[in-house]
């Protein structure tokens, strides 16, 4: 760690604090995540999901893990640095993003997701804070909860941040899939358009209530498996007709509404895959630029979601035309805006901003209340879903609360050193190496609050 100068703490997550740092040798700016838990052997470290999955991923829209360092039983991840996360961008925003901006970001994120899912992983904690942005480029970060698709269910940890949590996870299905990331993307897309969360539940039960209020309660047609899942735990969905998303998100065009609708389908099977989403008409004006061409492209066009200006790039493939399925149809029927949806949400943010200034004021935009997303439901970030709670307890909790509450490039590297205690390494795909340091001071703690 003596190779790095730590500049400033830029994030404080469940598992670690993140610092902006500079590599003294190369001058490169990096992000260093100092894990909160202690690691007493390398074996423990290499088995971490974040390490195992990120080692295998090399994609322009997935944050690069450059190096892993273990020193004095503290584990540090060295990532490429990105300027801001999407939540920070939205929080500071005074006017709505243009559709072109939303399209460009989403196109890139879906490319990252398509790559990840095709490589056999799903993220499980997609949220604006985990999408990092530098200029036009957006990358998926935080692989702490990533899962191998081939891993055997049941998945007993209760994952993801509430507002972006898929209904099957809320209902504690043992069998969820990469489609949980697609649900989250629907919610994130809507939020990018409106600068307010689509399903801002204040509890798990309220989360389901909010979802029902917006997309209408599930039916046999829309999610037969979900009704069965609910029956199995003795849970009754609150009954709502739903609203027109186009009314709720007036700044989104018809194609965007169609894609959000499709992503936020009750039934995971009815949500498009990431690759299918890339083919949606919403992205008709986007051009896929293969990663190998992106360095060349970057000087002339946004790197991942090319605009028409990128047409002359060699090797550019155009996605166009509608998907040949009915999943993309907006099938909302009720024009009635449910009262909770109109009320908005008031939250407080208590976090250090980019300039290191602690901000605990209520966040407000000119158009709607600013907000602070919830943390995960437990301090450890994962609730032990079924292991700590029986299904009856879960149903009771959901029932009681819903009814009546209204419901990261390194230069030349030496060959990989042997992995042993006290030796640091860099993932194989990016070469390994190790040093030692003590430079990261004990992390300060920032608290986040959700007001009211
Ligand atoms: N590569 C990076 N470049 C710049 N900032 C980063 C980087 N990685 C993380 N951050 C910042 O640190 C925050 C927390 O990082 P991260 O999500 O990896 O930590 P975590 O402990 O896993 O958090 P969580 O509570 O979401 O699980 C991010 O929201 C982001 O603002």
TrEMBL record:
<dbReference type="InterPro" id="IPR011009">
    <property type="entry name" value="Kinase-like_dom_sf"/>
</dbReference>
<dbReference type="InterPro" id="IPR050117">
    <property type="entry name" value="MAPK"/>
</dbReference>
<comment type="similarity">
    <text>Belongs to the protein kinase superfamily. CMGC Ser/Thr protein kinase family. CDC2/CDKX subfamily.</text>
</comment>
<dbReference type="InterPro" id="IPR017441">
    <property type="entry name" value="Protein_kinase_ATP_BS"/>
</dbReference>
<feature type="compositionally biased region" description="Polar residues">
    <location>
        <begin position="402"/>
        <end position="411"/>
    </location>
</feature>
<dbReference type="GO" id="GO:0004693">
    <property type="term" value="F:cyclin-dependent protein serine/threonine kinase activity"/>
</dbReference>
<keyword id="KW-0547">Nucleotide-binding</keyword>
<dbReference type="Pfam" id="PF00069">
    <property type="entry name" value="Pkinase"/>
</dbReference>
<comment type="similarity">
    <text>Belongs to the protein kinase superfamily. CMGC Ser/Thr protein kinase family. MAP kinase subfamily.</text>
</comment>
<keyword id="KW-0067">ATP-binding</keyword>
<dbReference type="InterPro" id="IPR000719">
    <property type="entry name" value="Prot_kinase_dom"/>
</dbReference>
<feature type="region of interest" description="Disordered">
    <location>
        <begin position="327"/>
        <end position="418"/>
    </location>
</feature>
<keyword id="KW-0418">Kinase</keyword>
<dbReference type="GO" id="GO:0004707">
    <property type="term" value="F:MAP kinase activity"/>
</dbReference>
<feature type="domain" description="Protein kinase">
    <location>
        <begin position="4"/>
        <end position="283"/>
    </location>
</feature>
<dbReference type="GO" id="GO:0005524">
    <property type="term" value="F:ATP binding"/>
</dbReference>
<dbReference type="InterPro" id="IPR008271">
    <property type="entry name" value="Ser/Thr_kinase_AS"/>
</dbReference>
<keyword id="KW-0597">Phosphoprotein</keyword>
<keyword id="KW-0723">Serine/threonine-protein kinase</keyword>
<protein>
    <recommendedName>
        <fullName>cyclin-dependent kinase</fullName>
        <ecNumber>2.7.11.22</ecNumber>
    </recommendedName>
</protein>
<keyword id="KW-0808">Transferase</keyword>
């Amino acid at each position: 760690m003596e190779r790095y100068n730590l500049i400033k703490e830029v994030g404080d997550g469940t598992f670690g604090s993140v610092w902006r740092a500079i590599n003294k040798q190369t001058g490169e700016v990096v992000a260093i995540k100092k894990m909160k838990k202690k690691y007493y052997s390398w074996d423990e470290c290499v088995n971490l999901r974040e390490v195992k999955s990120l080692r295998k991923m090399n994609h322009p829209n997935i944050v690069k893990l450059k190096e892993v360092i273990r020193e004095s039983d503290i584990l540090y991840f060295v990532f490429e640095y990105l300027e801001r996360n999407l939540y920070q961008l939205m929080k500071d925003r005074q006017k709505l993003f243009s559709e072109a901006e939303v399209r460009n970001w989403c196109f890139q994120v879906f490319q990252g997701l398509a790559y990840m899912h095709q490589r056999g992983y799903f993220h499980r904690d997609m949220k604006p804070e985990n999408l990092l942005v530098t200029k036009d480029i957006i990358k998926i970060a935080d692989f702490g909860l990533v899962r191998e698709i081939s891993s055997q269910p049941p998945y007993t940890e209760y994952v993801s941040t509430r507002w972006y949590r898929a209904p099957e996870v809320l209902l504690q299905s043992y069998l969820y899939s990469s489609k949980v990331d697609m649900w989250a993307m629907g919610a994130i897309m809507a939020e990018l358009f409106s600068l307010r969360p689509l399903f801002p539940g204040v509890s798990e039960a309220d989360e389901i209530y909010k979802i029902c209020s917006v997309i209408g309660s599930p039916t046999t047609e829309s999610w037969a498996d979900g009704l069965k899942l609910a029956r199995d735990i003795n849970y009754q969905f609150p009954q709502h007709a739903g609203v027109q998303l186009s009314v709720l998100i007036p700044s989104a065009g018809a194609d965007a509404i169609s894609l959000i609708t499709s992503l936020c389908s009750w039934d995971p099977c009815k949500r498009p895959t990431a690759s299918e989403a890339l083919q949606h008409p919403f992205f008709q004006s986007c051009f896929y630029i293969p990663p190998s061409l992106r360095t060349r492209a970057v000087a002339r066009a946004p790197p991942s979601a090319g605009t028409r200006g990128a047409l002359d790039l060699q090797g550019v493939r155009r996605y166009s035309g509608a998907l040949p399925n009915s999943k993309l149809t907006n099938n909302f029927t009720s024009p009635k805006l449910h009262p909770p949806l109109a009320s908005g949400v008031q939250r407080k943010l208590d976090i250090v901003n980019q300039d290191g200034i602690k901000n605990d004021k209520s966040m407000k935009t000119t158009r709607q209340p600013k907000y602070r997303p919830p943390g995960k439901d437990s301090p450890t970030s994962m609730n032990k879903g079924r292991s700590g709670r029986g299904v009856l307890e879960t149903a009771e909790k959901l029932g009681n609360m819903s009814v009546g509450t209204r419901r990261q490039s390194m230069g030349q590297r030496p060959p990989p050193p042997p992995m042993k205690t006290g030796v640091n390494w860099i993932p194989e795909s990016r070469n390994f190496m190790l040093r030692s340091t003590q430079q990261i001071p004990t992390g300060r703690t920032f608290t986040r609050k959700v007001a009211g």
